[in-house]
Amino acid sequence: MLTKRLPPLQSLLLLVSRPHSHHARQQFDVIVVGGGHAGTEAAAAAARMGAETLLVTQKIHTVGALSCNPSLGGVGKGQLVKEVDALDGLCGRAGDWAGIHFSILNRRKGPAVWGPRAQLDRQRYREFIQSELLSTPRLTVMEGSVEELLVTEPNPEKPGCHRVTGICLGSNQPISASSVVLTTGTFLSGSLFVGQTTSPGGRIGDAPSSAGLSYTLRERLGLRIGRLRTGTPPRIVKDSVDLSLVKLHLPDSHPSPFSFLNTHTRCKPEEQLPCYLTFTTPGVERVVRESLHVNCHIQQDTKGPRYCPSIESRVLRFPGRSHQVWLEPEGMTSDLFYPQGLSMTMPPDMQLRLIREIPAMHRAEIHTPGYGVQYDFVCPTQLSPALQVKNTQGLFLAGQINGTTGYEEAAAQGLWAGVNAARCALSLPTMALSRTESYIGVLIDDLVSRGVTEPYRMFTSRAEFRTSLRPDNADLRLTLKGFEEVGCVSSVRYQEAVRVKNTLQDALLALQALTLSAPNWKKTLPDICMSKVKSTILTGMDVLQYNDMSFEMLASAFPECLSSYKEFSLRLKIEAVYKPHCDLNKKEIERIQKEENMSLPQDIDYLSIPVSLSQEVREILDRVRPSTLGAATRLEGITPAAIVSLFNYVQFTK
Ligand code: FAD
User: Fold this and answer.
1) 308-350 pLDDT, tens per residue?
2) Which residue range or ranges hold the tRNA uridine 5-carboxymethylaminomethyl modification enzyme C-terminal subdomain domain (predicted)?
3) How far is the CA of 189 from the centre of ligand 1 (A)?
4) What is the pLDDT of residue 111?
5) How far is the CA of 185 from the centre of ligand 1 (A)?
6) Residue 324 buriedness (CB in 10 A; 0-12 / 13-18 / 19+)
7) Ligand 1 centroid to residue 399 C-alpha, Å
8) What is the DSSP string of 395-416?
């Protein structure tokens, strides 16, 4: 599937932009504004749904650009990539194509919370996305800057409710559409910061989104707009780093692909590159402190990403500590390292001083300095679960414009906004994904029901049903629905998902039907440790739950009934391990939901109660002091696990 050769980037760009020159159509079903991670998924999904779609973006050659870290996936984020892939999106296959260092994060924990991740070759990722868009039927890609949204005046029958009718380009050229998806990323009223210098921009080298667009959102549609910030590290010349002073970090020996259609990754072990780990020194902290007075970005109150903080924020929050710095390759043939953990906005000369305080980088050279960006976002509580603006029919928002951070969060929203924009244009009812079936549902529900006060990042702890929402089963959860109910999945992918589902079902029945007494199991598989056996008769499914038991071992002992399912050994093992967890988890959540109205005493000392709560959760509870458990559940940053701890504490101390 992914072994095809892509044409060189230059010829691709010409091909992608060709519809522009022939472009006569002034009416589309769906227009997507912005060719970042949200916009590309939205445009491809809308076209897959059967809508005539136009993607308008400032620069075609930046379509699919990775603005910051060249990596995809991670804890919680990997689950989103798998789900986007299960709904036939682009980013999983692009990640497999461009991956140069695959690893599963969180492997010491259970497979439900493993985080599939890959370091990427920037250029290959962009090439793949551009090539896919080019070959998507019903999709036109056009270079241009959208200056304004075309919206009707409020409908007298529905006060305060507008309808989007299209967009207007810089040349005052209007283009009509039934639905518009806005995915302006970090570009809406964007400003760039380095040291004391501020300039308008959405990303280095790119102009911000026009003031007209912000005006329409704020003044004409009356939307509440907030401001957030983020930053990126300087890029370091590879040859200038002393690799004898860093710790080598090899990729997994068997790379796990993101895409369910990719049964093997393109990357052979020899086609992968290592990453390196090093640490900050007290000298780094000294330079941060000495440069604070010339660092505008850090002096602002605007909220930045809590889980991807700048080195300035890390040093100020945790003084005296040594912080990790990962040196990650920017591509297979790139001469640069991306130093993850060293995002910074001080003046370039201070940036050089800072990195040279790290022993492995004492002679390092900076290729491009780090910088910060501040941008407008639309408070996402003004959206429906279909990502449609509540007071404007046909207008959908996705990605960083909704207050999230990260490519995966953007891609997931983009896909779902594209699906619904197409459904709206094709006069079909819009759809929502629930928290119980997907991380995409969790993400969107968190955004539209709780809103954001700082850039939102996905974590497994945000999903109550995480033992069932696993990376391994995203196809079973979403591909079938995506084809049968939503309409965004191709029949090729659907047929494969049906085959997988039927085979797994047969295998589970075979395991369930395999019943032996405990002594007979012991006789058949002498190495098996059965110290915890409670029942005398055990099924193959029960036995597969043991740590030291693999499906391969069972299949060797009972080849006649199990060997035909070896292709799914790992998935079957995971199913067996999680079956009891899933059942318990569901009951626990149901119990908590019943206790929504439980009162929380107003004198609880959240900062010191002896329960398992993170510092972040303690601070939020202490600040807000919710009156009921239900109110605590709806606070941004309060995880389902924290609610369980709080519930148990209040019950216990009653
Ligand atoms: P983007 O990828 O930003 O894409 C927006 C697209 O819209 C661009 O192609 C732009 O040209 C186009 N566009 C905007 N306005 C218009 C218009 N009016 N007309 C036509 N086209 C338009 N994420 C992290 O997770 N961690 C980080 O540490 C991090 N640091 C970052 C640092 C910097 C400096 C930047 C710029 C981004 C950083 N990000 C980080 C964010 C990451 O890039 C985004 O989360 C992700 O790219 C969002 O995807 P998106 O599709 O919403 O927007």
Assistant:
1) 788 998 988 899 999 999 999 999 999 999 999 999 999 999 9
2) 576-648
3) 12
4) 87
5) 4
6) exposed
7) 8
8) EEE-SGGGTB-SHHHHHHHHHH
Task: Take residue 221 and report the two structure tokens written for it.
Answer: 């549609």
- Taking CA atoms only, the protein residue closest to ligand 1 atom 26 is 406
Q: Which atom of ligand 1 is nearest to the CA of 398?
A: 52
The answer to whether residue 235 scores a pLDDT higher than 90 is: yes
Residue/partner pairs of 320-326 with CB below 8 Å, 24 or more apart? 320/282, 320/285, 322/279, 322/280, 322/281, 323/279, 323/280, 323/284, 324/277, 324/278, 324/279, 325/277, 325/278, 325/279, 325/280, 325/358, 326/249, 326/275, 326/276, 326/277
Instruction: Determine the pLDDT at residue 14.
Output: 37
Beta-carbon contacts of 505 under 8 Å, excluding residues fewer than 6 positions away, are none
Distance in Å, CA 36 to ligand 1 centroid: 6
Beta-bridge mates of residue 102: 118
| Alpha carbon distance 343, 230 (integer Å) | 9
Task: Provide mean pLDDT across the span 576-598.
Answer: 74
Q: How far apart are CA 210 and CA 101, in angstroms?
A: 38
**Which atom of ligand 1 has the smallest separation from the CA of 185?**
53
- Model confidence at 518, in pLDDT bands (50, 70, 90)? confident
Query: 161 to each of 155, 178, 222, 397, how far by Cα in Å?
Result: 6, 15, 11, 16
**Highest-pLDDT range among 23-37, 88-102, 259-273:** 88-102
How confident is the model over 625-648, as pLDDT tens digits?
877 787 787 676 787 788 888 988
Q: Which residues line ligand 1 (CB under 6 A)?
A: 33-39, 56-58, 62, 67-68, 145-146, 183-187, 202-203, 206, 209-210, 213, 230-232, 305, 308, 343, 373, 399-400, 405-407, 410
Q: What is the C-alpha end-to-end distance of the chain, expressed in Å?
A: 60
- Calculate how far, in angstroms, residue 376's C-alpha sits from the geometric centre of ligand 1: 12
Q: Show Cβ contacts of residue 129 under 8 Å, excluding neighbours closer than 6 positions.
A: 40, 63, 64, 90, 94
**Whole-prediction pTM value?**
0.87
Q: Confirm whether the ipTM is greater than 0.95.
A: yes
Residue 132: how many CA atoms within 13 Å on its side-chain side? 27
Residue nearest atom 21 in ligand 1 by C-alpha distance: 57
Closest CA to 398 of 385, 387, 382: 387
Which residue among 16, 20, 32, 37 is best mutated to probe the pocket of ligand 1, counting the most ligand atoms within 8 A of its Cβ? 37
Atom of ligand 1 nearest to the CA of 67: 43
Sequence-ordered list of residues with C-beta below 8 angstroms from that of 608, at least 6 positions apart, any chain: none
How far apart are the CA of 298 and the centre of ligand 1, in A? 20
Per-residue pLDDT at 599: 81
Distance from residue 271's CA to the centre of ligand 1 (Å): 29
Interval 35-46 mean pLDDT: 98
Q: How far is the CA of 595 from the centre of ligand 1 (A)?
A: 41
Site of tokens 């890609």: 141
Longest dimension (CA), the chain: 81
Mutation probe of ligand 1 site: the residue of 55, 57, 63 with most atoms within 8 A of C-beta: 57
